[in-house]
């Protein structure tokens, strides 16, 4: 039997990139998956189609996780479509780089609203439905310790994700709900391509610093998340796993 057979998962920000890879990996391992998207319906539908063509179950659900009503609706959609909730992957996130002289209130609020408030709102909604054995996996970033220039706000959001996850691990442990973090290094995604990182000197520098000698791919992260979502990780909570090819 597949290790997630019978489980239901919600993956936020799953229309592309790491989120899409995670949704597909959870489905391959047997979970029914709610594929969340904020704007790219076509991308989410493509992820659902890929899962269904492989014999899995999935549905695309629109929602801005930084809005309480949308976060609640997303979780309720999982229960309505599949009858339960076992796994929440908080993957939704945006990143914008700006030197300290260029910071604005909007730059700060956009990133903290989605990357931090969104995680809190979806977790708040999900906690009402997760039972014993439930798993929450939050996606952070190795940028919290790589300390890339011009990334103060983005790194701050991911530092908050790490701290919040530790608190929630202790808070939800009495209910036997686990909370862990996966912290990716540089991963080739549509966002990285749009930002001009892929093929740039920045990518070359990051790969040069990576002991395993290459950029990451969404599946490199998805496999770690699938492990944490499963009962194979039943004794892990409050952990931050850096999936970066060895970059520190």
Automatic annotation (TrEMBL):
Belongs to the short-chain dehydrogenases/reductases (SDR) family. Its EC number is 1.1.1.47. Keywords: Oxidoreductase. InterPro entries: NAD(P)-bd_dom_sf, Sc_DH/Rdtase_CS, SDR_fam. Gene3D superfamilies: NAD(P)-binding Rossmann-like Domain (3.40.50.720). The keyword Oxidoreductase applies. This is Glucose 1-dehydrogenase. It comes from the Bacteria. One of its GO terms (molecular function) is glucose 1-dehydrogenase [NAD(P)+] activity. It is an enzyme of class 1 (oxidoreductase). The keyword Oxidoreductase applies.
